[in-house]
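User: Structure tokens for this complex, please. No commentary.
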Amino acid sequence: MSRAVWPMPVSVEQIAVVVQRMSPEERRRLVELAPELRQATTQAPSRTPGEIQAAVERVRVEVMQALSGQLLSPAELFLGDLTLGQYMDLPDEDRARLWDEWAEIDLEELEELDVRPDAVLAG
Amino acid sequence: MSDLTRCLLDKVTTRRMVEGLLGLAEGRELSEEELLALDLYERASAQGIQLLIVPPAENVLRLLEGLPRYSAVVQPFLNCTRVVLPARYFKRWARRLRDYFTREDAAVLALATFGTSKDIDVLGMHFVATFDQPMINQWTLQQGKIGERLDAMRRDLRPPYDRVTLPQVLRPEEILPSGEEEN
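Assistant:
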């Protein structure tokens, strides 16, 4: 769960002082260059590590129940003549490429559907 | 489903969830993204969030479901997710979004506005869940221009397509039911 921490040459407090001295135009430019700033002020706080661990533990219990307590072996045959272990050892980009191959579908080739007049919108 | 907050999982987020489930089934240590994806998977139903996957991801999961040892892991996932399908005007909107995004990203984002379910009773998603930070940044940065282009397109559309909206594009850990965002 650890994240890489990049050493900053100045403190957050020093950056705040600089931001306070900026013109409105400079602040707009700053947000353009670092849109994460806008997201950080408008989004809900992320989940805590404890909440995440507890949720994943509940999923683990469900998975083990579904498997009657028997773990899957890395030697279990997976898709594409690979074993589960071989698949999981592949670099992420290779696993992504395999999913594209196995999917055998292009979203833009699918027929567009007409929704019901009373379809519920997301807005 | 129509009353739920709808969250479209991009292909990578779907893959992280499934690989996370397989990791639990194997007893291996999970990556940070797998943990975050599974956290969203676990709390979705309790928080009234309907997770949707794209048809290519469903195809892969159906293949996996066909393998006996994996079906116990994959079936519960398929049972609690729905598949998003292109609604009318999806292709037109995807073409416009290609001015800002790759073809694949544009298609997913277009599905989040002009996407429906097999029951064709919903239109659009509240959220797109993704780990793709550059895509999130680009969506945020170009929000004004994209909104203007959608407004221009909507003027020529008939109901209910003339009321579609843009989704929020967020990381899985930031997805909360509609109305619970801090604004």
